[in-house]
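Take our chain:
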Amino acid sequence: MKLDEFSYSILSYVHAGYGERINIGALVCCPAQSYIGAKFETRYDYLSRTFRGFDSREFRATIEEFCYHLRPLRNSYLKRIAQPPLLSPIDIEQSGLIGNLQTAEDVLRIIWPDNGLSYQYSLARYGITENAEDELEQTFQTFVGKQRLPSVTHRGLRRTDEDIWGEFSRFLPESARSLIKPHRIVTPQIEVKLDHAYKNGHYNVFQPFTLDYSDADYAQMKAARWLGVGHALDNNPDLAQLFFLLGTPKNNSPEQRKTATKVENLLNQIPIKKEFIYDRDLEQFADVTISYMKLNGDLPEVV
């Protein structure tokens, strides 16, 4: 099985006057497979219920225009790209863009050059895949499709990775939190952005990972992605240890326990040095983290 590096970006809609963001689509770029693809939310009634005054016609026109400019790029990847209406078509080979059009974010900069209005996109994230087209569907379902389900959209019922990180970080003083920063690891095989890393010679990575999902396929897919990342980062000299901060299901049903066990089994196959920290132990682990930072001289004895 040949695995190729791919990147993806999540496209969002920000409703004017509210500032609330909702994911509306995903774009995947995989140069090794000559693949660029995008998928969008098409349930306009869902968006209308979410935002008062939502203009479904304007939204539909924006997405159609996006797809119009993406189509020639997808059909002739790394050869010629159709630019937005205000720009004439540009031959990539003549313009020098061919060397830069390698990620989802590169593609989006050309189609949506003004990132910051009602329609926005995220920084590119990276992974490895056997089939980029399948990856688009999985990415869309992970970041867009799941928003439709009450089990994910209502935070009171399900906890996200961000919730788990919030539970852990509140046990850390500000001086300790300031030492934990995003870090990007780049290798010939993969480029990975780690949101919570503490460096003392090498990087100790804190990765929140909620198990609080009712969809077994989604949870296992998410774990499988980390398994792929772990294999790509095996023996990386920058990485010291990976700490998974696991959020156990609130609804401790037999089915959810079964799903959580499968996810943990997948994560346990990651070859790099790792440790599982369950949410019940987050406060104790925070104390251990603080002591380690003091031992390394990064924190004063009294914080």
Remarks:
- Confidence is low (pLDDT under 50) at residues 80-99, 149-157.
